[in-house]
Specification:
261 residues; alpha/beta; TIM Barrel; binds 3-methyl-2-oxobutanoic acid
Length: 261
């Protein structure tokens, strides 16, 4: 999948696989994989930089990682870049500047958290030819007001999320990420809108799934969440590799003659 057009066309067809990743090195693995599309998530702030929340991600940080990822993917995968905190809340002009930065860095689309109060920004970006992906449910940039909690568990909360998903669709967005939403609600939203839903902690009824590279490869033992499945034991591999290197250096078995000039 190489574009927002192909992404939208997958609605109701084969599930879409998306990975959130940040570096050129990760991009090389993703380029060689069958994974459909890549998100340069603002989780770069927590996963790569060790910040407490994604609030620390800036437009410049997002553009730098987007450019590194775009160079690795070489246009072969649909590439989405996250809008960082408040970039959609300062009005249309600043939002266009941020979108231009991310698209010039190589993104094919931007992802924006929330909808209420910035529908006009979503609509303006879309009408400017910029594909936009929404993000509803647990929106980590709002952690200080909503916490890290499953959203839409009450009747009112569920109705509100359904309404927001319809507003994202009405604004012309190409899809929507649903984060930490009860599975039955995510399935209901998926059936109610004509754009793909991408779940993370939102059950199997979405049109696709997204996980963070480091979480799904077991590289982040300090983070656990019910929705994460580790598809490889990356932590064991790296830890054993580092120990083997140290042991070889201290035992003077590395470098060998073959590894010397
Ligand atoms: O920042 C991110 O990685 C994300 C995904 C987890 C959806 O927003």
């Amino acid at each position: 999948m190489k574009s927002a057009v192909e992404f939208k066309a997958r609605k109701g067809k084969a599930p879409i696989s998306m990975v959130s990743a940040y570096t050129h090195w990760e991009g090389k693995f993703l380029a060689a994989s069958p994974v459909d599309c890549v998100l340069v998530g603002d989780s770069v702030a927590t996963v790569v930089d060790g910040e407490p929340t994604t609030v620390a991600a800036t437009p410049e940080i997002m553009a730098r990682h987007t450019a590194a990822m775009a160079r690795a993917l070489g246009g072969q995968k649909f590439l989405i870049a996250d809008f960082p905190l408040l970039a959609a809340r300062k009005g249309i002009g600043p939002a266009l500047d941020c979108a231009a930065l991310l698209l010039r860095a190589g993104a094919h689309a931007v992802k924006i958290e929330g909808v209420d109060g910035h529908e006009d920004v979503l609509r303006h970006l879309v009408q400017s030819g910029i594909p936009v992906i929404g993000h509803l449910g647990l929106t980590p940039q709002s952690v200080h007001s909503i916490g890290y909690k499953v959203q839409g568990k009450t009747k009112e909360g569920a109705a509100n999320l359904l309404r927001q998903a319809k507003a994202v669709e009405a604004a012309g967005c190409s899809g929507v990420v649903l984060e930490c939403v009860p599975a039955d609600l995510a399935a209901e939203i998926t059936a109610a809108i004509a754009i793909p839903t991408i779940g993370i902690g939102a059950g199997a009824g979405c049109d696709g799934q997204v996980l963070v590279f480091h979480d799904m490869l077991g590289l982040n033992p300090g983070f656990s969440a019910k929705f994460v499945r580790t598809f490889a034991d990356g932590n064991k591999l790296v830890t054993e590799g580092l120990k083997a290197y140290h042991d070889a250096v201290t035992a003077r078995t590395f470098p060998s003659d073959r590894e010397s000039y």
